[in-house]
Write a structure and sequence with these properties.
109 residues, DNA recombination, mainly alpha, Integrase_catalytic, single chain
């Protein structure tokens, strides 16, 4: 058995060469038909970038993707982990309270 080389292709073509991006997209689309799943190669790229950035550093993810600037990787590829809380309920309460105050002020005139 041959020793594994970390530079070997993960999904080589039948000839052992890199697959063309268009063929990868076509094969992925074909594999997903009828499954209700909609995943693109770009989704995989974002997932890997996020995992590398979280597991090591943003600089490593940037280098892996071949970006010159960490801000590009951060903005477009790494999933944010700090999400603002859902404040719709609080805003609805403030609007309702303000409306009630406005109505009661108008009744006193």
């Amino acid at each position: 058995m041959e020793a594994l080389n970390p530079d070997d292709l993960v999904f080589p073509s039948t000839k052992g060469s890199p697959r063309s991006p268009g063929r990868v997209r076509d094969q992925l689309r074909e594999a997903q038909q009828g499954t209700g799943i909609d995943v693109t190669p770009h989704d995989f790229r974002r997932t890997v970038a996020t995992q590398v950035a979280r597991g090591t550093t943003l600089a490593n993810a940037t280098a892996l993707l071949g970006h010159a600037d960490e801000s590009t990787t951060s903005r477009h590829y790494v999933q944010r982990i700090h999400v603002a809380p859902d404040l719709r309920v609080v805003i609805d309460e403030v609007v309702a309270q303000t409306s009630e105050e406005t109505l009661s002020e108008g009744k006193g005139e």
